[in-house]
Prior knowledge:
With 138 residues, the protein is mainly α.
Amino acid sequence: MLVGRIKFLEKIRPFFEVLEHYSAPELSIVLVNSLARFIIFTSQYIILMKLTLPELPLLSMVLMIFILFFVQAALPTLDIFDFSVRSFVASNLYSYITTQEIAVMAIVSCIWFVNLILPAIFGSIFVFKINFFGDTNS
Length: 138
């Protein structure tokens, strides 16, 4: 393993040992799924940003999206506060390239709603239709 060969990375070797339990094709599938997810989320942000804020330069916008993903992944949040944290982070990051804070917050809120809240609502509808206790007349 490459991590074990580099002296200063010796401390984090146990974190990577779990990867030795999986084959290369399995890890490739995980990598492809992760890349697809990354491309889908990035595309959603680009489409909404171009529709809402067409004056933003594409390169700056995409780089800010990548930084936004990194910061959101690094911040530990509860799902209940996730919306406010995402909006706060996005508005602060995009303040370097636009003054349209409300539009940025609306874009982040829309993506959060479409990817998190709508699936949760639809999923709960299907869960509530399941009869866990058999045929009862209640």
